[in-house]
Amino acid sequence: MRAADEAGLRETEGSGEAFARARAELAAERDAYGSGLDRWLASLVAGAEDVALVAVGGHGRGQLTPGSDLDLMLLHRDRGDIAEIADRLWYPIWDRGLRLDHSVRTVEEARRVAAADLKAALGLLHARWLGGDQELVDLLRATVLADWRAQAGRRLAELAELTRARWAAHGELAFLLEPDLKEARGGLRDVHVMQAAAATWAVPGPGERVRAAHDLLLDVRHALHKTTGRATDRLVLPEQEEVARLLGLADATELLRLLVEAARTIAYAADTLWRHVDRFCADRNRAVRSRTRPRRRPVGDGAVEHDGEVVLARGADLADPVLPLRVASAAAQAGLPLAPATVERLAAETPPLPAPWPAEARDALVTLLGAGTAAIPVWEALDQAGMIVRMIPEWARVRNRPQRNPVHRFTVDRHLVEAAAGAAALTRDVARPDLLLVGALLHDIGKGRPGDHSRVGAELTRTIAARMGFPPADVDVLETVVRHHLLLPDTATRRDPDDPVTVRTVADRVSAVPGRGREVLEILAALAVADAQATGPAAWGSWKARLIRDLVRRVDAHLAGNAPPPDAPVPTAEQLALARHDGAAVRIVGSRITVAVPDRPGLLWRTAGVLALHRLAVRTARAFSAAEAGTAVLDFTAVPEYGAPPDPAALEADLRRMLADRLDVADRLARRAAPRRRRGVPVPPPRVTVVEEASDTATVIEVRAHDRPGLLWRIGRAIGARGLQVTEARVDTLGAEAVDVFYVVDAAGRPLREPAALSALCDAILAALD
Fold it and tell me: What is the rounded average pLDDT for all residues in the chain?
């Protein structure tokens, strides 16, 4: 556990001195008990030749508590009278009422048992001499360790399988109301098997933070045994307050928060170790091992994949405060873990984000959250390095905070991340996926503070959203979403949806931001699903889903009467001046690219294709015709997928070649795409809809899809292939999600009216995006 984290917790919720003193007393008591018992056990074999008493397992590690079993082996050199010696040893132990797990072996017998039984081998790795022939114990340890290392590939594979089966059986300690301190994921057993894995020399052992977390769990286990008077590792609810008192803590909530911190530290280290073990075993089992260095593959600006993890690219600018979020979003979108050393370096060497955040940082956060479940381990890595609290100080109050009820599966902070991950699957249902994802991340940020958590959270969200650099109107939307995130489920399950007052009440609350009522409604509808599913199985079901859908339909119909039509693109004076340029004009200023040329079909998507050739990701695009000049104006904001921006002169040259029909964009894009490895996280399928009554002069098509290189090219080419023209377009990429609107007419300049033609167009766009 980080000292700063523990100090902060002590400052707000308990006495650090009392906690430290209680732990020291427990450790001293445990040491005194163990050493006194060891001296007595050694006296039982005093004077015996060619035998040794060996402590194995937990006893061998010196971790005895009052309820622990004694795990002993009587080791001998083929003595014929070993049975009589064993009887003289075991009966005094039983007479004292001690629980005993015992065995009698020669070194060779112990070796065979270890070879056949993985659990026995793990116990022998911690063999410790208590009394008798010490050379015999040294021989045992050397023999077992040599075999363990010689069989590392097989043993580590078995150990990984055993560990994952245990996790499945016992759950995750950090998120259990009554956790098993030893066997659950993130518990004591995980540290023991990490030590065993490190004994193969194939992977590194647990670090200082993991050892400190282990010691905390051991102290809690000792206090639990003192409280119950028996050997138990499950910390049940009735015992938690007394265990907290023995440890000098204020209450059970404080105890569980410390346990969560320790368990997550161990679980994070375990994930990293087993990832390395899997790679080691795969290499050992591969018929032909590569002799070359692991290949580095760019996955984003400043980030590359190296040996299955995301690390910093050579030359990454550590002075850039946005770099951590950019690298994290690239890792999540690629479905890859962040290398722990990379996270620690980012935490130590990058400056904090300014306030307000630059737009690039906000976009990277949305991209990270938009990766769905792949964002969770990346977020955990940032959290373990202390970077989440650095970016969002308000996160400290919900971090590792237990919910202490059977409905919630997770701590408050993990629930928020799970809700955001779930919301990523619902981004097609909203016009502003960025506000949905951030709203999901912050909806319970007020928990752990006095007052109603929705109201407190709304006030905190206003501060956080402004710091993140959202425009004032978007800040208002996020505040409203957090304040009313329980509005739809509470109203749908407790009020009569047929009552007009119910519909008006909900409509009034979602309309708190002028002109954004329907937008807030659709975000709240998606958030209700993500929140409930992240809470647990008891919080969501078909009945509740049906009630909420019905309420949303009624409120939306009520709001629709005052819904303004979509704004049509309007050229600026600067763009109109450029459009009057004699012939084709291309202007590139930073990330903004403006093209003004004689209007013709397919201009938008062909230009987007050239940008994709130069590895530019289109973040926004506006396309329209300046009728008085007979010229089309295309205005793009585009940023590099990774690395430095392209040479403006080369980009302009390619744009001009495309305009002169001397550049085969399709062929160049196909050749560029061929070597790309298709890899990443699962994303929701694209959605194509016709926006009814949005325009009298064109058919309005909205496309919501996961952004990728050449997306606009694919959509535009599908439209053009059907003999249709795009007269105007609005293209926006919010995080990793594109929300694109196209005004489409046929060859005669008329909107499409036939349902069959509209359906065929939507199908063609979906096919192009498949």
Answer: 87
Task: For 236-268, write each residue's pLDDT tens digit.
Answer: 999 999 999 999 999 999 999 999 999 999 999
Residue linked to tokens 């690390």? 311
Whole-angstrom Cα distance, residue 474 to residue 325? 21
Per the CB < 8 A criterion, the answer to whether 496 and 474 are in contact is no
- Average pLDDT on 203-224 reads 93
Q: If we measure between CA atoms, which residue out of 587, 589, 595, 618 comes closest to residue 713?
A: 618
Alpha helices (runs of H) in 385-471, residue ranges in sequence order: 387-391, 412-423, 433-442, 453-467
Nearest to 331 by CA among 306, 359, 356, 352: 306
* Mean pLDDT, range 728-746, rounded to an integer: 85
Which range (470-484, 503-517, 529-543, 638-652) has the least confidence?
638-652
């996270």: which residue's tokens?
Answer: 343
Alpha carbon distances (Å) from 354 to 101, 320, 463, 476:
60, 11, 14, 21
Average pLDDT over residues 159-178: 94
Left, alpha or beta for 57 (phi > 0: left; psi -120 to 50: alpha)?
left
Mean pLDDT score, 410-428: 95
- DSSP state letter for 73: E
Domain extent listing, the chain: 3-12+153-285, 44-150, 435-560, 576-769
Residue 256 burial (CB count, 10 A): 25
What Cα–Cα distance (Å) separates residue 336 from each residue in 278, 283, 309, 324, 333?
Answer: 14, 19, 6, 15, 8
Nearest CA among 660, 751, 667 for reference residue 701 = 751
Give CA separation, 589 vs 15, 649, 729, in Å: 58, 12, 21
Tell me what the mean pLDDT of segment 346-361 comes to: 96
Non-local CB neighbours of 152 within 8 Å, separated by 6+ positions: 200, 201, 202, 280, 284
Coil, strand or helix: which one is 639?
strand
Q: Which residues pair with 626 in a beta bridge?
A: 631
**How far is CA 711 from its chain centroid?**
26
Within 8 A by CB and 6+ apart from 438, the residues are 365, 366, 369, 420, 465, 468, 470, 478
Distance CA 10, CA 4 (A): 10
CATH of domain 3-12+153-285: 1.20.120.330
Assigned fold of 44-150: Beta Polymerase; domain 2 (3.30.460)
Local structure of residue 539 (DSSP, 8 states): G
> In DSSP terms, which residues pair with 132 in a beta bridge?
52
Token pair listed for 534: 């992240």
